[in-house]
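Record minuted for everyone:
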Amino acid sequence: MLRRYYDFTDQALIEMLCHDDDRAAFAEIYWRYGRQLVLEAIRKTGDRNAAEDIVQEVFVKLWLRRHKLVIQKNLQAYLKGMLRYHVIDHYLMRENSPLVTASLLSSFPDPADDDYLAGRLLHNHYLQALSRLPDKCRQVFELSRKGFSIRDISKQLHISEKTVEVI
């Protein structure tokens, strides 16, 4: 019997994905939201290839975490939230991965060095990348990493919840 997945609600698709490992439900979710996520990622990164890679990562993570999914709002908002964090990670990785030539390898710290093991080098790169983000974006990112909810962040920064979601 042929199932018509486009007739199902997002909630029903999530149920089928999470409980039945339904690949067709996953494909329908991708069909519904993949293109708009790519367009959003292009708008945020300015790079179509990077945007497509980011969206692919979002859907791979959705599939891998399907048994643990807890979607409090709606599916579209959940996917946009995942996209937002993947875009931020994209920028952080891009800032933290300069081109390394063989001649530069000797200038890297010894892995046995305590400073290296303590993560100071990585932490400094993280702080540099964070300082390059626009002020509100950086504040939202930092508060979200400290466990604040979207509502708490919007109240603390005096911006709308929608703005917090978009950033």
Notes: The chain has a mean pLDDT of 82. The chain is about 70% helix and 0% strand.
